[in-house]
Amino acid sequence: MAGSVNKVILIGNLGSDPEVRYLESGSAVAKFNIATTETYTNKNGERVDNTEWHRIELWEGLAKVAEKYLKKGNQVYIEGRIRTDTWTDKEGQQRTGVTIRASSMTLLGGPSSNSGGDYNQGGNQGGYQQSGNAPRGNNAPRPSDPVPPSMAAGNGDDDDLPF
Protein backbone atom coordinates (compact mmCIF):
# COMPACT_ATOMS: atom_id res chain seq x y z
CA MET A 1 0.00 0.00 0.00
CA ALA A 2 1.27 3.45 -0.94
CA GLY A 3 0.60 5.41 2.26
CA SER A 4 -2.18 7.77 3.19
CA VAL A 5 -3.96 10.87 1.93
CA ASN A 6 -5.15 13.89 3.90
CA LYS A 7 -7.05 16.11 1.44
CA VAL A 8 -10.10 18.28 1.90
CA ILE A 9 -12.10 20.11 -0.76
CA LEU A 10 -14.73 22.63 0.35
CA ILE A 11 -16.91 25.22 -1.32
CA GLY A 12 -18.58 27.54 1.14
CA ASN A 13 -19.35 31.08 2.20
CA LEU A 14 -17.32 33.16 4.64
CA GLY A 15 -19.06 33.77 7.95
CA SER A 16 -16.94 36.86 8.66
CA ASP A 17 -14.05 38.83 7.22
CA PRO A 18 -10.70 37.01 7.57
CA GLU A 19 -8.64 37.72 10.68
CA VAL A 20 -5.09 38.33 9.46
CA ARG A 21 -2.05 38.71 11.69
CA TYR A 22 1.65 38.92 11.08
CA LEU A 23 4.09 36.94 13.18
CA GLU A 24 7.39 38.40 14.43
CA SER A 25 9.10 36.56 11.58
CA GLY A 26 6.96 38.52 9.10
CA SER A 27 4.86 35.50 8.15
CA ALA A 28 1.19 36.22 7.51
CA VAL A 29 -1.58 33.95 8.77
CA ALA A 30 -5.29 34.38 8.02
CA LYS A 31 -8.12 32.58 9.78
CA PHE A 32 -11.82 32.53 8.98
CA ASN A 33 -14.83 30.23 9.02
CA ILE A 34 -16.77 29.02 6.02
CA ALA A 35 -20.20 27.45 6.01
CA THR A 36 -21.21 24.53 3.83
CA THR A 37 -24.88 23.57 3.63
CA GLU A 38 -26.38 20.23 2.68
CA THR A 39 -30.07 20.31 1.74
CA TYR A 40 -32.25 17.23 1.67
CA THR A 41 -35.86 16.16 2.10
CA ASN A 42 -36.63 14.11 5.20
CA LYS A 43 -39.08 11.20 5.39
CA ASN A 44 -41.93 13.62 6.17
CA GLY A 45 -41.29 15.49 2.91
CA GLU A 46 -39.86 18.53 4.69
CA ARG A 47 -36.82 20.35 3.34
CA VAL A 48 -33.93 20.27 5.82
CA ASP A 49 -30.78 22.41 5.66
CA ASN A 50 -27.77 21.08 7.54
CA THR A 51 -24.98 23.69 7.84
CA GLU A 52 -21.45 22.77 8.89
CA TRP A 53 -18.85 25.38 9.89
CA HIS A 54 -15.20 24.84 8.98
CA ARG A 55 -12.23 26.77 10.41
CA ILE A 56 -9.82 27.69 7.59
CA GLU A 57 -6.18 28.72 8.03
CA LEU A 58 -4.08 30.31 5.27
CA TRP A 59 -0.37 31.15 5.40
CA GLU A 60 1.96 33.56 3.61
CA GLY A 61 0.80 34.61 0.14
CA LEU A 62 -2.62 32.98 0.51
CA ALA A 63 -3.14 34.92 3.75
CA LYS A 64 -2.30 38.18 1.98
CA VAL A 65 -4.72 37.37 -0.86
CA ALA A 66 -7.43 36.63 1.71
CA GLU A 67 -6.74 39.90 3.52
CA LYS A 68 -7.05 41.87 0.29
CA TYR A 69 -9.97 40.15 -1.44
CA LEU A 70 -12.11 38.05 0.93
CA LYS A 71 -15.12 39.52 2.71
CA LYS A 72 -17.97 38.12 4.75
CA GLY A 73 -20.45 36.30 2.49
CA ASN A 74 -17.98 35.62 -0.36
CA GLN A 75 -18.01 32.13 -1.80
CA VAL A 76 -14.64 30.39 -1.90
CA TYR A 77 -13.26 27.04 -3.06
CA ILE A 78 -10.63 25.64 -0.65
CA GLU A 79 -8.27 22.70 -0.99
CA GLY A 80 -6.14 21.70 1.96
CA ARG A 81 -5.59 19.19 4.72
CA ILE A 82 -7.13 18.51 8.10
CA ARG A 83 -5.16 19.46 11.20
CA THR A 84 -6.22 18.65 14.73
CA ASP A 85 -4.98 21.18 17.29
CA THR A 86 -4.93 20.81 21.07
CA TRP A 87 -4.57 23.71 23.52
CA THR A 88 -5.38 24.78 27.06
CA ASP A 89 -7.99 27.52 27.38
CA LYS A 90 -8.07 30.41 29.89
CA GLU A 91 -9.87 28.23 32.45
CA GLY A 92 -7.19 25.53 32.19
CA GLN A 93 -9.41 23.13 30.23
CA GLN A 94 -7.85 20.98 27.50
CA ARG A 95 -9.49 21.81 24.15
CA THR A 96 -9.30 20.20 20.72
CA GLY A 97 -10.31 21.68 17.39
CA VAL A 98 -10.13 20.82 13.72
CA THR A 99 -8.67 23.30 11.25
CA ILE A 100 -8.36 23.08 7.49
CA ARG A 101 -4.91 24.33 6.43
CA ALA A 102 -5.47 25.50 2.87
CA SER A 103 -2.94 24.83 0.15
CA SER A 104 -4.99 26.47 -2.62
CA MET A 105 -7.95 28.79 -2.87
CA THR A 106 -10.23 29.97 -5.67
CA LEU A 107 -12.38 33.05 -5.23
CA LEU A 108 -15.84 32.22 -6.54
CA GLY A 109 -17.59 35.46 -5.66
CA GLY A 110 -20.39 35.96 -3.20
CA PRO A 111 -23.86 37.34 -2.76
CA SER A 112 -24.55 40.08 -5.32
CA SER A 113 -25.14 42.60 -2.53
CA ASN A 114 -21.74 41.88 -1.00
CA SER A 115 -19.42 41.07 -3.88
CA GLY A 116 -17.95 44.56 -4.16
CA GLY A 117 -16.00 43.61 -7.27
CA ASP A 118 -12.51 44.41 -5.95
CA TYR A 119 -11.08 40.97 -6.69
CA ASN A 120 -12.73 40.89 -10.10
CA GLN A 121 -10.74 43.88 -11.35
CA GLY A 122 -7.62 43.38 -13.43
CA GLY A 123 -8.00 39.61 -13.77
CA ASN A 124 -7.32 38.97 -10.08
CA GLN A 125 -10.24 36.61 -9.62
CA GLY A 126 -9.14 33.03 -9.87
CA GLY A 127 -7.10 30.33 -8.22
CA TYR A 128 -4.23 30.87 -5.85
CA GLN A 129 -1.93 28.16 -4.63
CA GLN A 130 0.43 28.13 -1.68
CA SER A 131 3.40 27.16 -3.85
CA GLY A 132 3.23 30.18 -6.14
CA ASN A 133 0.51 32.42 -4.73
CA ALA A 134 -0.14 33.76 -8.22
CA PRO A 135 -3.35 33.90 -10.23
CA ARG A 136 -4.03 31.13 -12.69
CA GLY A 137 -2.76 31.57 -16.21
CA ASN A 138 -4.86 33.57 -18.63
CA ASN A 139 -5.97 30.43 -20.46
CA ALA A 140 -7.38 28.72 -17.35
CA PRO A 141 -11.18 28.86 -17.06
CA ARG A 142 -12.69 30.94 -14.28
CA PRO A 143 -15.82 29.90 -12.40
CA SER A 144 -17.81 32.56 -14.30
CA ASP A 145 -16.68 31.35 -17.74
CA PRO A 146 -19.30 29.51 -19.82
CA VAL A 147 -18.97 25.75 -20.15
CA PRO A 148 -17.30 24.83 -23.45
CA PRO A 149 -19.67 23.06 -25.89
CA SER A 150 -17.54 19.91 -25.68
CA MET A 151 -18.30 19.68 -21.95
CA ALA A 152 -21.96 20.76 -22.03
CA ALA A 153 -24.61 18.19 -21.17
CA GLY A 154 -26.62 16.77 -24.02
CA ASN A 155 -24.07 17.35 -26.75
CA GLY A 156 -24.64 13.89 -28.17
CA ASP A 157 -21.12 12.61 -27.47
CA ASP A 158 -22.14 10.42 -24.55
CA ASP A 159 -23.84 7.65 -26.59
CA ASP A 160 -21.05 5.19 -25.81
CA LEU A 161 -21.27 5.64 -22.02
CA PRO A 162 -22.25 2.43 -20.19
CA PHE A 163 -24.82 4.18 -17.97
TrEMBL record:
InterPro entries: NA-bd_OB-fold, Primosome_PriB/ssb, ssDNA-bd
Keyword DNA repair (UniProt): yes
Protein's UniProt keywords contain DNA damage: yes
Coiled-coil positions: none
GO BP term, pick one: DNA replication
Compositionally biased residues, Basic and acidic residues: 84-93
Motif (Important for interaction with partner proteins): 158-163
Keyword annotations of the record: DNA damage, DNA recombination, DNA repair, DNA replication, DNA-binding
Cellular component GO terms, alphabetical: nucleoid
Quaternary structure and interacting proteins, as annotated: Homotetramer.
Entry function: Plays an important role in DNA replication, recombination and repair. Binds to ssDNA and to an array of partner proteins to recruit them to their sites of action during DNA metabolism.
Protein name: Single-stranded DNA-binding protein
